[in-house]
TrEMBL record:
KW Hydrolase (keyword) present: yes
Pfam families: NUDIX (PF00293)
NCBIfam families, A to Z: PRK09438.1
GO molecular function list: dihydroneopterin triphosphate pyrophosphohydrolase activity
Protein's name in the database: Dihydroneopterin triphosphate diphosphatase
CDD domains: NUDIX_DHNTPase_like
UniProt KW keywords: Hydrolase
Enzyme Commission (EC) number: 3.6.1.67
Species of the source: Undibacterium arcticum
Signal peptide per UniProt: none
Stored InterPro entries: NUDIX_hydrolase-like_dom_sf, NUDIX_hydrolase_dom
Span of domain Nudix hydrolase: 4-153
Length: 162
């Protein structure tokens, strides 16, 4: 079976605590590459919020909007109304239709309790860590991910505005 091309529209979800610690996950296909939760739409008409909820669950096991042990309330997922258009790294362009070199990424934030259980998708991610937001931004391989994390105090109204 031929795998369909990825849709060049995605979400970036900055998962964070009230104290602005940020969850980073290490890519399995590129060890040493740390990032927030990211993922493309499954279908062109998939709402961005649905994409964000699905990707958070697939990559971390966190359920958004359910009343279970690994869940957070739906209102803790916030659309920051920020979008980035970036050039897709050449190493991943084969996943997209021929000629597609740019992706539009929509940024969300998700406030979670610090002790929430994380269950990584082993084929996608190797490890996770919590870091203060500035250290997390420094650890990200992606410039747009780092910039989103640096926006965290302003977007949430939490922590220091430095």
């Amino acid at each position: 079976m031929i795998k369909p091309y990825k849709i060049p529209e995605s979400v970036l979800v900055v998962i964070h605590t009230f104290d602005l610690d940020v969850l980073l996950i290490e890519r399995a296909d590129k060890p040493g590459y740390w990032q927030s939760v990211t993922g493309s739409k499954d279908r062109p008409d998939e709402p961005l919020r649905e994409t964000a909820v699905r990707e958070v669950f697939e990559e971390t096991g966190i359920v958004v909007g359910a009343d279970t042990q690994h869940a957070v309330a739906a209102d803790q997922l916030r659309d920051w109304r920020l979008s980035n258009v970036y050039e897709i790294y050449p190493v991943w362009r084969h996943r997209y239709a021929p000629g597609v070199i740019h992706n539009t990424e929509h940024v969300f934030g998700l406030l979670v309790p610090r002790d929430i259980a994380i269950t990584l998708a082993p084929l996608e991610h190797l490890h996770y860590m919590w870091l203060p937001h500035r250290a997390a931004a420094d650890k990200c391989f992606s410039a747009s991910n780092a910039e989103a994390i640096l926006q965290l105090p302003r977007q949430t109204g939490l922590g220091y505005q430095s």
